[in-house]
Write a structure and sequence with these properties.
The protein is mostly beta strands and 105 residues long. The protein is 12% helix and 35% strand. The chain contains 2 helices and 6 strands.
C-alpha cells in the first residue's frame, strides 16, 4: 500500500535577502505558520484529497522564526518506500495514501 508523507521543505534567508524582498511570494515563515495556527505549532492543512490534515511543526520549533516552510504532500512508491530524502526536508506526518495521482518521491 502506498503511504503519504506531509513534509516541511525548509529555506532560510539572511537578513539582507529578507529585507530586499519584503513582499517575496513563496512559503510562509515559521512565525507566519504559528500565527495561522493561533499561536500554536499544531494546526491543519488542506491535503491533495481535499480533506484537512492535522499536523505539528514541533519537530522544527527550534528553528529561526524567519525559516520559510513549504508544506507539501509526497506519495511513496507502490511498495511503500520513499526515495532519497534531502536534508532540507522534515517529515511532519505519515499515513496511508488515499487513491490519487500524487507524484512519487
Amino acid at each position: 500500500m502506498s503511504r503519504l508523507r506531509v513534509v516541511a521543505v525548509l529555506s532560510e534567508y539572511d537578513a539582507a535577502v529578507r529585507e530586499s524582498m519584503p513582499d517575496r511570494p513563496g512559503p510562509r515563515s515559521l512565525a507566519q505558520w504559528r500565527r495561522e495556527f493561533g499561536g500554536s505549532l499544531h494546526g491543519s492543512v488542506a491535503g491533495p484529497d481535499g480533506r484537512r490534515h492535522e499536523i505539528s511543526l514541533a519537530a522544527i520549533e527550534g528553528l529561526s522564526a524567519d525559516t520559510h516552510i513549504e508544506v507539501t504532500f509526497v506519495r511513496s512508491r507502490p511498495d511503500g518506500s520513499f526515495g532519497e530524502f534531502p536534508a532540507d526536508r522534515v517529515v511532519l506526518k505519515e499515513m496511508d495514501a488515499p487513491p490519487g495521482d500524487l507524484p512519487f518521491e
